[in-house]
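User: Sequence in, structure out. Go.
Assistant: Echoing your sequence, followed by the structure tokens.
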Amino acid sequence: MSILLPFVGGLFGFMAIGLPVFIALGATCLLALALTSTSGGFPVELMSLKILQTLNSFPLLAIPLFILAANLLNRGSATERIFDFANVMVGFVRGGLGHVNVVASMIFAGMSGTAAADAAGLGALEIKAMKAKGYPLAYSTGITAASSVIGPIIPPSVAMLVYGWQADVSIGALFLGGFLPGVLMAALLMLTTLIMSYYINMPTRDFPKFREFLHAGKRAILPLFTPFIIVGGIWSGMFSPTEAGAVACMYALLLGLVVYRDVSVRDIFDVLVRSMEFSAVILLIIAISGFYGWLLVRLQVPQSLAASLIELQLPNLGFLLILTVFFVIVGCFMSVIESVLILTPILAPAIIATGIDPLFFGVFMVVTLSTGVITPPFGTVLYIMVPITGLRFEEVVKAVAPFLLPIFATILLLVIWPQIVLFIPNLFR
């Protein structure tokens, strides 16, 4: 376990002095190579070879494809159509647009796979609509940011895809396992909105007429098919997760260029540039973290950690509660994908050794780490909400704080009842 200090301590030390994550990972790997070089360690040249080998992976191609599909849908009118449909469905319930906000985020999560895409795609539209109806800006900001946490949980999820690739767990099963936790979180956020509606002004719309429902459904029906195409195609075996990403891109292009004609060729160029920039950042981190994980395994760090955890003889509930606190803290400082990339090689063998289902653990880890997108100091969604709302960063943090309660309640329920995650995947095993 002596090598664990430079691996984990060195990594967080490098990040603490302001180095980007991919540089901190690379420097940590070089430090570990230097410390082991005198005892028959690995040559430094191996690092470049393993980095290239990591990227030479068909499953990883799904990441830029899902990012591209989400950006294409955001550029067109799909988000507006989804929001209008959600408004007709639940806008008349006490809490009004607060419920609409959550339902729209649930639907869009089935297309985007990330919290940032959800907040950036729907956030401006939701805040504008809630301002126009007289909702308090603090509440509107809080529920918009909190509902985006559902993005990495409802399938497809980029973070779960990365975990499945690293831990050798079925990505299709992970996607199915994320469905009920996502719905549970949405239900608790809506319950919170219902309670808050008795204390703050939340105007509602009239109960929709049947023709309004039909009109909104007709406008949204094709975007609503996107998550069914993705998850249904993977579950049925028609295509792999990577192929599902390609199908989602083609479907988004079809909607924007042919059906709705609200995406131009110039728009596609801009979307490609944005998608390449975001994908390059993620894939660079993945490339270096691949070597980081490989070194961990070769130096027996996960195996040693697993043995130490077994010796503690902690019950699974106690172990998961400790990990919950740890993941929440880590999520405050790193993105979900970065955290999954770094922690999976360390913790996955220990999880298997303690008898925890790796499928459950993957969903649990993604859900818990996702809280980091709305917690300071580095919550990405918090920074996205600042220009959208015009509030200061501190005001956005204060607005989001009440909605951490239903999110933490969701995590606690997953720890107590793992079957919330495993129920649907077990039906298809």
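User: And one key feature?
Assistant: Residues 265-298 form the longest helix (34 residues).
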